[in-house]
Amino acid sequence: MSLINYSSKEITCKIVYYGPGRCGKTTNLQYIYSKIPDIKRSSMVSLATEKDRTLFFDFLPLELGDIAGYKTRVQLYTVPGQVFYNSTRKLVLQGADGIVFVADSQVDLWQENLESLANLRDNLGILGMDINKVPMVMQYNKRDMPNIVPVAEMDHALNSRKVPHYQAVATTGAGVFDTLKAVSALVLQSLSAKYRR
Amino acid sequence: MTNIQYVLSEEINQAVEASMGRYLKDSRASCALLLAKSGHLISQAGFTSNFNVQSIAALIGGIFTSTQALAKVVAEEKFKVMFQEGKTWNVYFCLIADQFILATIFDKSTVVGMIRHAAGEAERELSPVLARAIVSDTDQAARDLSEKMDRLPSDAPGQPGAQEEALPDFNQAVEDALSKLFS
After folding, report:
1. How close B55 comes to chain A (CA, Å)?
2. What is the rounded CA–CA span in Å between residue B142 and residue B151?
3. Which terminus in chain A has less CB density within 10 A, N or C?
4. How far is B139 from chain A (nearest CA, A)?
5. DSSP state of B39
6. Do B174 and A197 touch (CB under 8 A)?
7. In chain A, residues 63-92 whose CB comes closer than 8 Å to chain B
């Protein structure tokens, strides 16, 4: 549900980071926010519980600047990962132009990844969106942890659509910008395809 | 994927800005924001530089959408209006054409009754205009606008042409934009 303003030549897109609880969605946004130069920094909104778990969403607006003559703005959102916040996840997912699925690489959290992906598929379906069509990127996070699932195995189980995937350690920033760059490009390509016959 | 998008032509944009200007004058509010329920900011009027309007739009989008879920729980079809009262600033927001939210930030120089009255008038003006901003792939409007979009980049000096072969390499464009932003 992007917004294109021909008069002011602006494009605004919404990208949602989705994944199981504590997989690193908020950390992705925090890292991006920390790297924005002070002069260009606005604010990151985090609606979190007292224990810093996302309660509603995190929101980070990014002004990408001029792309093909249009002032391009990307709005990054995260959903709350905890199972019992499903209704909130649906609200945030509404109007998403692109999705980053952040999977936790740790062996112990394998099942949570599968459940979260199934939950994403269900929620998109309820909103009239198709998980096989929405611009999407996979991020296999926490690659620095000791007991992790091999990337090939994660990709085989989670990425049947074969969308671009990236390994990441969001706490250090590894893979964070690669993921952001890939999903932003996919969203813009999708918009371009829609409006160019 | 859902095929609803918001596309504002110059004509729609001008009509929206004119309505927002009138609304601000009639309501005597400090600023007004028009946004989609998804949190996308469409138009702003008044002293918006005092506020981080992108964040306000995202938060109001979230609040309003969750309020609609609350309406369903109490067997209401929808809640059309919300009002938040603070020490200095108050926020009034109302649903327009079922897809948009008109949010108004005001201080003690006006009263909520006046805001409410002016918002009703603004809704009558904005509803038909905004309905034309909602397009889908199947709409003729979308096709017409797509032709316009094709022309626009070539109008800008130094911009690549808009023909199919001149499409920008978005991978490179985004990489350049991010490098510039984070340099």
Report:
1. 7
2. 14
3. C
4. 11
5. S
6. no
7. 63-70, 72-73, 75, 77, 87-88, 91-92
**Would you list the DSSP string of chain A?**
--EEETTTTEEEEEEEEE-STTSSHHHHHHHHHHHS-GGG----EEEE-TTS-EEEEEEEEEEEEEETTEEEEEEEEE---SGGGHHHHHHHHTT-SEEEEEEE-BGGGHHHHHHHHHHHHHHHHHTT--TTTS-EEEEEE-TTSSSB--HHHHHHHH-TT---EEE-BTTTTBTHHHHHHHHHHHHHHHHHHHT--
Q: Do A57 and B167 touch (CB under 8 A)?
A: no
Structure tokens at B7: 């596309």
The count of residues in chain B is: 183
Asked if A77 and B55 touch (Cβ cutoff 8 Å), the reply is no
Do the beta carbons of residue A102 and residue A23 sit within 8 Å?
A: yes
Q: How far is CA B177 from CA A9, A34, A65, B21, B180, in A?
A: 16, 17, 6, 33, 5
Q: How many residues does chain A have?
A: 197
pLDDT band at B140 (very low <50, low <70, confident <90, very high): low
- CB nearest to A6's CB, from B38, B149, B180: B149
Q: Computed over its alpha carbons, how large is the radius of gyration of chain A?
A: 16
Q: What whole-number distance in Å separates Cα of residue A101 and Cα of residue A164?
A: 11
Look up residue A74 and give its amino acid.
Answer: V
Question: For A25-77, what is each residue's pLDDT tens digit?
Answer: 999 999 999 998 887 777 888 877 666 677 778 899 998 888 888 899 999 99
Name residues of chain A where pLDDT drops below 50: 197
In the three-class reduction of DSSP (H, G, I as helix; E, B as strand; rest coil), residue B42 is classed as strand
Query: Tokens for A92?
Result: 């945030």
For residue A40, which residues of chain B lie inside 8 Å, CB to CB? 181
Q: How far is CA A144 from the centre of its chain?
A: 20
How far is Cα B43 from Cα B54, in angstroms, rounded to an integer? 11
Q: How far apart are CA A113 and CA A5, in angstroms?
A: 37
Tokens of B19: 């309505």
- Compute the distance between CA of residue B44 and CA of residue B60 in angstroms, rounded to an integer: 14
Residue B3: partners with Cβ closer than 8 Å, 6 or more residues away: B136, B137, B138
Edge-to-edge strands, sheet with B41-46: B41-46, B31-36, B100-106, B90-96, B81-85
Window A:133-162, CB contacts with B under 8 Å: 133-134
